[in-house]
Design goal:
mainly alpha; rod-shaped; 2 helices; single chain; about 0% strand
């Protein structure tokens, strides 16, 4: 499971805990939900950053291949 997906799960779990805490008056459960939601948000950002880094590496590799190919055909 990707970090982005794990983040979305954590975020949803956090929102559910907050709602349950609000409904039952359980402040600790509400706080746990806030932590889970924040953790999910961070995981999604880490996943996005990793995806972008991977895309950058792939782009650089493609450019290197193109450069080598054009040198070989000379």
């Amino acid at each position: 499971m990707s970090e982005d997906t794990k983040g979305k799960v954590d975020e949803a779990k956090g929102k559910a805990k907050q709602a349950a805490g609000d409904a039952t008056g359980d402040d600790e459960l509400h706080r746990e939900g806030k932590v889970d939601e924040a953790t999910g948000d961070i995981r999604q950002k880490v996943g996005d950053a990793a995806d972008k880094a991977g895309e950058g590496v792939g782009d650089a590799a493609d450019k290197a291949k193109d450069a080598l190919s054009s040198d070989d055909s000379s």
